[in-house]
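ESCALATION

Customer reports they have been waiting on this structure for their group meeting. Please prioritize. Original submission:
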Amino acid sequence: MMDNIKISLDASGPNGELSIVRVDGVIDTMTATELEKVMNSLLRQKKYNIIVDLGGVDYISSAGWGIFISNIREIRQNNGDIKLAQMVPNVHEIFELLEFDSILQSYDKIDKAKRDFNLDDLSADGVTSERSDQSVVSKMAEAGAAVATSAPPTVAKDVVEVLSKSDDETADTTDTEIENRVLELVRDDPFLSVSEIKKVINSDESFEKKIGWWKIRRILKKNDLLSKKKRFRYSRS
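Update from on-call: job pushed to the front of the queue and completed.
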């Protein structure tokens, strides 16, 4: 293992159905290959029920996120899943910012992730029969992650770029309404972050589709409101 990453592997469940990957350190371009080796080893052994304990990780680069995204389709095609657990706040913030929460499930405790695997329903070969591959493909397409699933993590050019394209799927007829709502929120509270604006808008049932972080950022950029200083001036005008 490299000095700035430590990876350990454990099994859980009555018959060792779950693979728990504990990672400590940083997952960046240099260290992501170590995690990739572990994940590939699990897949070669047909171990498709995986919990990744990120409690000791304080940074994940796009190469690191790409490992999870690039493997998830194969894993779910084999009725398995990757569940992330115990992310520290700053890592979880990026996880939500990149909208990976629409693809992968995260848990604050390992035990919660274990329970969600429904060990009692696992068959003898350690997989479930309930997950629909079609629903997985649909969810990944909605999140704009289709390109990331087919590209190796080491060449996954910012997964951010891939995800940003998904925002363009929002119907043009709602663009003006969304922009008006963003500007209204800026006037009401210029100190809201992009993520906070996104959260408020997506809690509004009047919009049928979820609005992505990058779409809101583009609206702010279009109106020259990227900085909080400029948003403050706008709110006072």
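Sent to customer with the following note: Residues 62-77 form the longest helix (16 residues).
Escalation resolved.
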